[in-house]
Write a structure and sequence with these properties.
heterodimer; A: 305 residues; alpha/beta; four-stranded antiparallel beta sheet; three-stranded parallel beta sheet; 10 helices; B: 410 residues; Rossmann fold; 2 domains; 14 helices; 12 strands; 29% helix; globular; disordered N terminus; disordered C terminus; binds adenosine-5'-triphosphate; binds iron/sulfur cluster; binds magnesium ion
């Protein structure tokens, strides 16, 4: 989205392609045109993107008119339509309200309505339900998946909740310390988790359907400090599977099975994983290394992490 | 008005049938006044945060408290600790009525009850060292002194998995998980009997939540602690609790063993709440159907008449909106041993597709969740978001064959 202020955040390199066009090459006004119209974003806290001193009507009409040449009254009619689409009762009256007069779940639905106002091709939802109760989360997620299905919108869902991933997505990229460490269709990722971090996450959270008393296997250590670039694998300090080479070189994201062709998208996306010493299927289901006598390789002296 | 306090009979509850529960609460009400006016504030209403609950906690037991934001969970915990003076009802701690206890009496019981807070950042004094934070309760209560106290601080830090030599560091020098450990060490300082843990892991990175859960479980075994565990995350509450109380708008609507709550929820609200919790397994998620509650949670200052859930209840709608739900408030009644529910029509919940679908497993004598009709507004949660067709839902033949492949047990 190129929303990070410089110089605090800058794009160091690489490409971000949207419909074949490299977004990094675009100038600010071209990018602004794309944002909202083609790509929209919703955030964890809707209050950060709703203006507290303007009514919902003012904000929605402004957004709609900024991208579409239509009259104020048409924009208003569209706003009402969008609000009822996201399940806000009495949308004509609610348009006159300010954001603080809505509950958290309703504000998130207003945000979704605004994001959808311009029928974007891509919707980036950054922890859209993290601040909400599960019952309200269910409302919002149901709304998101219904709207995406009806309009053919592609969605990038950013979340730390593996349950939400399992229920909502087709394909998953697991990230650790700024790197994609595992990438697969969601069905395959859960059927055959292959990176120690993915395995660790699955075993460290209790599942609603677990037998009471099943022990959790925590991930040891603390989350990574992103100020320091890791020398080897970024997960090495916390990893139960690490071998000596993990401290030295960053493992590449590679297909699990040797293959001639790597598919990046779609239902046949190739299952890839960045790890020197992948857990076996039995180890993944046990949540710990099972090889006789195996212990995680200690940090080499003077590695200077 | 009040129902008898229910005994702990659920599976997994500690075996010792102690005569007195450690905590027992009867008809507890905690209202907060709403006032208006700048100069002369007038009392214009009440937030009925907790509105008549009965609950007992046996020694060594863990009771979980779940429900949506604002339903009164924290207020229950804080009122039991007597951080508030209850509006009505009774709070009994280890046989002693502390409802209106004050001064030295209150201080004496407070020593035996401690709290662990949600936010390890906000709950620790940034200007005190870890050792200072842990020893402060001992200073306040004149517990140990000098060398003995310093030794105890080191022991406590080690007990919660911190390096005792880090005692002279300040909170900002620790990670979130380590700060929560400091909070736990502080709570343990006075050898408490009861610990009220209010969302103790919700502010932590997912990768370290299990460290704290395991720590709390280990400490319970080591020190014979009794926990009131408050959280909105049902999976976590279910993992750690022997029994669970589900709250809705200041009332307990269901109280049962944590196994029974998942396998046989009997209150329409519990069913909806459970159905909304995502399970990290696409095969299971593909079979589950959510009950989407419409509308928002009503205000606790003006709760609905009769059953407070009637404005959002799927069962009531199913039954043709019976008047009884609006006219008469359902009391918590014991349906089977140790399983209490506050719904006039709880019998009707048993065996419904909604109840069965919560688990994503076929129930006895009920059509398969995946095959049966889905409740209104359910629809597939396997978001048709990405631009390729839905994977065919898993259609396993046997109930055992469809167990998620990745189980927590080896
Ligand atoms: N000290 C207080 N003064 C006034 N109102 C209060 C106070 N504490 C809580 N309330 C109100 O009482 C109700 C219950 O609050 P409580 O904090 O117990 O809910 P909760 O279930 O713990 O919610 P959450 O999950 O958001 O922590 C809410 O409406 C809240 O606004
Ligand atoms: S085994 Fe090595 S490469 Fe793989 S995650 Fe662990 S530390 Fe990283
Ligand atoms: S008493 Fe009526 S409204 Fe309340 S939960 Fe039962 S069926 Fe629903
Ligand atoms: Mg609370």
């Amino acid at each position: 989205m190129r929303l990070l202020p410089e110089p605090a955040g800058r794009i160091e390199g690489g490409r971000v392609e949207f419909e074949g066009q490299d977004l990094i090459e675009l100038d600010e006004s071209e990018m602004r045109e794309l944002r909202g119209k083609e790509i929209a974003m919703i955030f964890q806290d809707p209050m950060t993107s709703l203006n507290p001193v303007l009514t919902i009507e003012e904000q929605m009409v402004e957004t709609i008119k900024a991208h579409k040449k239509i009259t104020g009254s048409d924009a208003r009619a569209r706003a009402i339509e969008l609000l009822s689409m996201v399940g806000i009762p009495q949308p004509e009256q609610r348009l006159r309200n300010f954001p603080h007069q809505f509950s958290g779940g309703m504000r998130q639905r207003v945000m979704i309505a605004m994001a959808l106002a311009l029928e974007p091709k891509l919707l980036i939802a950054d922890e859209p339900t993290t601040a909400l109760d599960v019952t309200i989360q269910a409302q919002v997620l149901e709304l998101l998946s219904r709207l995406a299905a009806d309009h053919g919108t592609a969605v990038i869902l950013i979340t730390h909740d593996l349950g939400v991933v399992a229920g909502m997505t087709r394909r998953t990229n697991v990230m650790y310390a700024g790197f994609v460490v595992e990438s697969a269709t969601t069905a395959e990722l859960f059927a055959q988790p292959s990176h120690p971090y993915t395995v660790g996450l699955l075993h460290s959270m209790p599942r609603l359907d677990a037998q009471p008393g099943e022990p959790l296997i925590p991930i040891e250590g603390t989350p990574p400090d992103l100020r320091f670039a890791p020398v080897g694998c970024p997960f090495a300090p916390r990893c139960a599977w690490r071998v000596e080479s993990c401290w030295r070189g960053m493992p590449p994201l590679e297909p699990l099975q040797p293959t001639t062709e790597v598919h990046m998208t779609g239902s046949g996306a190739t299952h890839r994983c960045a790890c020197w010493n992948r857990p076996t299927a039995e180890e993944a289901s046990a949540g710990r290394p099972l090889r006789a006598g195996f212990t995680a390789a200690p940090e080499p002296i003077g590695a200077g992490r | 008005m009040t129902t008898p306090v229910l005994p702990a009979q659920a599976a997994g509850a500690p075996a010792q049938a102690s005569a007195t529960p450690l905590v027992s609460v009867e008809g507890l009400r905690m209202y907060f006044e709403i006032t208006s006016g700048v100069l002369l504030s007038r009392h214009v209403g009440d937030i009925r945060a907790v509105d008549g609950i009965d609950l007992s906690i046996e020694k060594g037991e863990t009771v979980g408290l779940v429900g949506e934001s604002g339903c009164g969970k924290s207020t229950v915990g804080r009122t039991i600790l007597r951080l508030y003076r209850p509006t009505a009802g009774r709070v009994v701690f280890d046989g002693q009525d502390i409802t209106y206890a004050e001064g030295s009496t209150l201080r004496a019981v407070r020593r035996r009850m401690q709290m662990i807070f949600q936010d390890p950042y906000a709950s620790l004094n940034p200007r005190m060292t870890a050792a200072g934070i842990v020893s402060e309760p001992m200073e306040i209560h004149n517990f140990a002194s000098g060398r003995e106290r310093r030794e105890r601080v080191r022991d406590l830090l080690a007990t919660v998995g911190l390096d005792p030599d880090y005692g002279d560091r300040y909170p900002h020098e620790f990670s979130g998980g380590q700060r929560q450990r400091i909070g736990v060490a502080r709570a343990l300082a006075l050898h408490p009997d009861l610990i009220v843990a209010d969302e103790p892991i919700s502010a932590l990175d997912v990768s370290i939540q299990a460290q704290i859960i395991n720590l709390l479980e280990r400490l319970q075994g080591e020190f014979g602690l009794t926990y009131l565990f408050i959280a909105h995350d049902l999976s976590v509450v279910r993992h750690i609790s022997d029994r669970i109380a589900v709250m809705y708008l200041g009332k307990i609507v269901e109280l049962t063993g944590s196994r029974a709550l998942y396998e046989r929820p009997l209150h329409p609200y519990s069913v909806a709440l459970l159905s909304a919790v995502p399970i990290p397994d696409p095969a299971v998620e593909g079979r589950r159907r959510r009950i989407i509650l419409t509308g928002d949670v009503p205000s606790p200052s003006n709760p609905p008449n009769g059953c407070r859930f009637h404005t959002r209840c799927w069962l009531r709608e199913r039954l043709g909106n019976p008047d009884r739900c609006v006219a008469e408030e359902p009391v918590l009644r014991e349906m089977t041993a140790g399983h209490a529910v506050a719904c006039h029509f709880a019998e009707e919940v048993d065996g419904t597709a909604e109840q069965v679908q919560v688990t994503g497993r076929p129930g006895s004598g009920t059509p398969r969740a995946a095959a049966g009709p889905t409740p209104a507004a359910a629809g597939s949660m396997a978001g048709e978001a990405a631009g390729f067709p839905a994977a065919a839902p898993a259609a396993p033949a046997s109930p055992e064959g469809d167990r998620p492949r990745l189980r927590k047990r080896s």
